[in-house]
């Protein structure tokens, strides 16, 4: 049963908590630049994630690991300038928080001060407890991330579904409850069995947002370039392409090239 949507002039961490309590699903998409952020925001998306997936879709890297804190701040700053309504969450990149809680706090402070972001997201559970606590103690909202954590891809060795086995599923539930207890305002669950994700969402009081985690969670997130079909090599089961922009853009650019070669562009109406 659908729940009536409440209009928020500005979405906050309190807003998405209210959405969970009301049973209203939370919509979340990535954005990495001003123009895309403006479109995503104006369409009514609740949460915009400035993801370290910028390493893949914007810079062409194979993994999320190479992107730097400075680059994340650049992308986040660009997004913030295009947003009027959505809550903007910024990924802390690999190496900026895992080894030293003081470094984690410095990284989070830089993101908040230099980009104007509203919250940060970290991958991991109890092993990064001290980093999360320091960031929260500074008054910075934290979103957790469990399941498939792309920053640990070389540890996993594969992008396959996580927590299919009982031991790992139990560990995930334990970590999710620990993140809630620490004070995280929400958690992303990536590529885990739908039944497990539903269980986590039901047992937690904070919002649980899924990507490849079924429909029993409190919201969904996708990479905007994937759902718009700007990428075409990436075809996981959980991805729904709402457009096929790769084909449409290729066709349009091909037509432009042909028109320039044929002296058809610009025509008389397109000249001063």
How is this structure best described in words?
It is a single chain. The chain is an alpha/beta fold and 272 residues long. The protein has 2 domains: 13-241, Phosphoenolpyruvate-binding domains (TIM Barrel, Alpha-Beta Barrel); 244-272, no CATH class. It is built from 11 helices and 8 strands. The protein has helices at residues 13-22, 34-42, 54-57, 69-80, 101-115, 129-137, 153-156, 166-182, 194-203, 224-227, 245-261, and strands at 26-30, 47-50, 87-91, 119-121, 142-147, 186-190, 208-211, 219-222. Strands 1-2-3-4-5-6-7-8 form an 8-stranded parallel beta barrel, surrounded by 7 helices. Helix 2 crosses helix 4, helix 4 runs parallel beside helix 5 (101-115) and helix 5 packs across helix 6 (129-137). It is globular, with a radius of gyration of 20 Å. The chain starts with 12 loop residues before the first helix and ends in an 11-residue tail after the last helix.
């Amino acid at each position: 049963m659908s729940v009536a949507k409440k209009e928020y002039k500005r979405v906050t961490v309190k807003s998405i908590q209210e959405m969970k309590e009301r049973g209203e699903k939370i919509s979340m998409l990535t954005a990495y630049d001003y123009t895309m952020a403006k479109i995503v925001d104006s369409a009514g998306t609740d949460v915009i994630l400035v993801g370290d997936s910028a390493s893949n879709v914007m810079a062409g890297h194979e993994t999320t690991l190479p992107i730097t804190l400075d680059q994340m701040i650049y992308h986040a700053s660009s997004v913030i300038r295009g947003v009027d309504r959505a809550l903007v969450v910024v990924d802390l990149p690999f190496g900026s928080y895992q080894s030293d809680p003081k470094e984690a706090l410095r990284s989070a402070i830089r993101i908040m001060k230099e980009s104007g972001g509203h919250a940060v997201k970290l991958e991991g559970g109890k092993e990064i407890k001290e980093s999360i606590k320091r960031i929260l103690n500074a008054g910075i909202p934290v979103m957790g991330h469990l399941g498939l954590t792309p920053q640990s891809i070389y540890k996993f060795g594969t992008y396959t579904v996580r927590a299919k086995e009982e031991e790992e599923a139990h560990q995930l539930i334990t970590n999710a409850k620990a993140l809630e207890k620490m004070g995280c305002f929400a958690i992303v669950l990536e590529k885990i069995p739908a039944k497990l994700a539903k269980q986590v969402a039901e047992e937690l009081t904070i919002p649980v947002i899924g990507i490849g985690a079924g429909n029993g969670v409190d919201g969904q997130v996708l990479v905007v370039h994937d759902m718009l079909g700007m990428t075409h090599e990436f075809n996981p089961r959980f991805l729904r392409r709402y457009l096929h922009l790769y084909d449409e853009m290729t066709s349009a650019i091909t037509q432009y090239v042909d028109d320039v070669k044929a002296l058809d562009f610009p025509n008389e109406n397109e000249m001063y």
